[in-house]
Design goal:
Distance between the termini: 34 Å
Order of helices and strands: HHHHHHH
Largest sheet: none
Helix content: over 70%
Structural class: mainly alpha
Shape: elongated
Strand content: under 5%
Number of domains: 2
Low-confidence stretches: 168-173
Number of helices: 7
């Protein structure tokens, strides 16, 4: 795909990390709007939703292997419960369409859907907590290694989030 782009544009992407970030963010906005139009009803909503996901992406890209694997597992579990919940919702809507009274079956399905929703919320909470705790731990490591080489805390945080340590703090060979 990259070979189809002009060489000057490829060189710009390779040299400029800010351009890479802007391009990745805009690709995320486009992808969310294309594949999940219900996620954002307005242009501003689409950009804000994408900004949250992009921030989460940046934070998870700064984690060690084990927290990333744990996050992937909990996202997968949440996805499985999402699919299970959608099947329960379909069954509930089918029961509601029938003219006979299936009150008890409907009530059982509603309770199951509610329990599944609680499990999904728990998975989401665990993913957010792993991301935050993992970032604090990882940032603390880098802070002790690299902070004295920066101009101040904001400079360190921006470099930590958007550039990575290898570009600004090369390792000794």
């Amino acid at each position: 795909m990259w070979n189809a782009l002009p060489p000057d544009l490829i060189a710009l992407f390779n040299k400029n990390r800010t351009i890479q970030m802007v391009f990745a963010y805009l690709a995320l906005v486009y992808t969310i709007d294309l594949y999940n139009p219900s996620a954002s009803k307005s242009v501003i909503g689409s950009f804000l939703y994408s900004a949250l996901l992009f921030l989460w992406f940046i934070l998870t890209s700064k984690l060690h292997l084990k927290p990333n694997l744990a996050i992937m597992i909990f996202i997968f579990i949440g996805f499985l419960f999402y699919k299970h919940k959608s099947l329960k919702k379909d069954a509930l809507s089918e029961l509601e369409k029938k003219k006979e009274s299936y009150f008890f079956q409907q009530e059982i399905l509603r309770r199951q859907i509610k329990r599944i929703t609680h499990i999904q919320h728990f998975c989401f909470f665990v993913v957010v907590m792993i991301t935050l705790i993992g970032n604090v731990y990882y940032m603390k490591e880098h802070f002790h290694q690299y902070y004295n080489k920066d101009k101040g805390p904001l400079d360190f945080i921006l470099k930590y989030l958007f550039y990575g340590s290898k570009k600004y703090y090369p390792t000794k060979t």
